[in-house]
UniProtKB/TrEMBL annotation:
Protein name, entry field: Uncharacterized protein
GO biological process: regulation of primary metabolic process; response to other organism
Residue ranges occupied by any Myb-like domain in the UniProt entry: 9-61, 62-112
CC terms in the record's Gene Ontology section: nucleus
Organism, scientific name: Dendrobium thyrsiflorum (Pinecone-like raceme dendrobium)
Protein location: Nucleus
Region of interest: Disordered: 131-150, 187-211
GO terms for MF: transcription cis-regulatory region binding
Amino acid sequence: MGRAPCCSKVGLHRGPWTTREDALLTSYIKNHGTDNWKSLPKRAGLLRCGKSCRLRWMNYIRPDIKRGNISPEEEDLIVRLHSLLGNRWSLIAGRLPGRTDNEIKNYWNGHLSKKLKNQGLLIKEVVTRRLTPRDHTSKKKKKNNNNINNNEAKCINIENVKMNKIYAPKPMRIYPTYRNYVTSAVTESNDETEGTNGRLDSGDESSSGNYQEILSSSDINAEEANLLDVNHYLGSDLDLVNCDFFLQDHEVLDRVYQEYLQLLNVETDKEN
DNA sequence: AACTGCTACAACCGCCACTGT
DNA sequence: CACAGTGGCGGTTGTAGCAGT
């Protein structure tokens, strides 16, 4: 791998993890938890950076991880969630117990996108937008054609987007005022919120009671409340203020909400 | 057997949001 | 308010392994 090591990673191990490293990491986390990734490798006796340890743990070592054999039901759910959320792999993974964002991302890029394209179901890759556009000019150009899907996607004219409408909410965080309503509601009813970055536990329906009470006692109007409800269940973090896509098109909102309800039904059926 | 092309996926990178000081 | 540290995310890359020639 020919990249220059970033920041202070000089002298650290890179590349594939050995079984010994896995064992060290597993042993340390079992005994001490994952409270500080930065200092973890040193304390665990690993010559790796914290990021690398975190990635290894989150994607491969964690005991609750399912690997491989993505079922047709899971595949269907991935496709549907992707049509709703775009390339927000962590959110999609959050709806698939035991699956990681990296696995779903790889599965999509290496398998599903091609399959859908062959079936004529995917015309345009969904490109999620960040709050502040990244500067891509410094990125290295790709050398080979392995990622032709991405390159093709960038070249596709918007006029070609006809066969399959893809609703791609902006990957934004909830506007602070609204987030306060939501997080307080979720926290009151369930201590197992995701806990980081103010994001919500996407799958928890038990909190909807308090959540609705807070909404009803607030000055949020029905339209915004409806949208918040979608955000709440999807675990999304749409920006209500800037999300023209929703607020300017009631039909789109209805469709997204209906699709969301269908997703819930799919999951309920699976649980039963 | 040697070479080439392709695929899958583990791992890395840079960026960004959040939090604490 | 500004800044630094940290965790998390999505995009990208390198390589092992396989199939075809």
